[in-house]
Amino acid sequence: MDDDAFRSTVALLTARDRDLARLLARHGPPSLWSRPPGFPSLVLLVLEQQVSLASAAAAFARVAARIGGMTPGALLGATPEQLRTDGVSRQKDRYLRALAEAVLSGSLVLDELGDLEEDVVRARLTALPGIGAWTADVYLLACLGRPDLWPVGDRALRVATAEALGLSTVPSPEQLEVLGERWRPHRSTAARLLWHGYLARRGRAETPAGLLGPAAAARDGSTGTR
After folding, report:
1. Which CATH code of 1.10.510.10, 1.10.340.30, 2.60.40.640, 3.90.226.10 fits the domain covering 39-143?
2. Rounded to 10 degrees, what is the CA torsion of 139, 144, 145, 148?
3. In the prediction, which pLDDT does 57 show?
């Protein structure tokens, strides 16, 4: 999906859904939130698990500065103590090392994922420790550009949906799955609209795309949801 296709999809969804139309009128259009596919984006997604975007971005920047770029070999060259100093928990250190080792060994070939079916991508990613359904789904949405992803495990998306639809309680992942049916086959765009409203209501900034390198910044001015 490029910017033109994204804008067209936003127009289509908001023309037929008054709740999304209200979000657009109140907060303006979101950018096409995307991240470049590859190892750095997966590292950032692991760091974003269960913490704020700002905290994850700060840890990512410190690690990248320490090792001179976010590559599997460079990450494995840092000691656990060094990564702990940079804000990486013991558990996430283990996850990141398993990811780096899988990429280096060839048991996970990231360049192949873009050509695979979504269930196959999920299976390959979730086979690694610390990469669950949320990480796999967000990678499919943001890095591989799949148009109909709906990450029901994302707390921010669940809260954003409740706020946008005027629900009295935050839906469970199972309930969110049902709610998202109204936006098929464009649920990735609906998620971007909902995330945009969630951030705007809280005065929070999105993660700068430049964190992942100049190529990411050139593709999109901002990324991130929580």
Report:
1. 1.10.340.30
2. -60
3. 94
Q: Are 196 and 30 in contact (CB under 8 A)?
A: yes
Cβ proximity of 32 and 3 under 8 Å = yes
- The pLDDT value recorded for residue 222 is 34
Check if CATH label 1.10.1670.40 holds for domain 3-34+147-223.
yes
Q: What is the pLDDT of residues 153-194, one digit of tens each?
A: 999 999 999 999 999 999 999 999 999 999 999 999 999 999
In this structure, are residues 45 and 33 in contact, taking their beta carbons and an 8 Å threshold?
Answer: no
The Cα–Cα gap between 222 and 210 comes to: 8
pTM check: above 0.85: yes
d(CA 128, CA 94): 11
Phi/psi of residue 222, nearest 5 degrees: -160, 155
Residue 163 CA to residue 189 CA, distance in Å, equals 17
Domains of the chain: which residue ranges?
A: 3-34+147-223, 39-143
120-134 exposure pattern, b = at least 16 Cβ within 10 A, e = fewer: ebbebbbebebbeeb
Q: Is the peptide bond before 185 cis (omega within 30 degrees of 0)?
A: yes
The residues, any chain, with a CB within 8 Å of residue 84's CB and separated by 6 or more, are 90, 93
pLDDT in tens, 134-143: 999 999 999 9
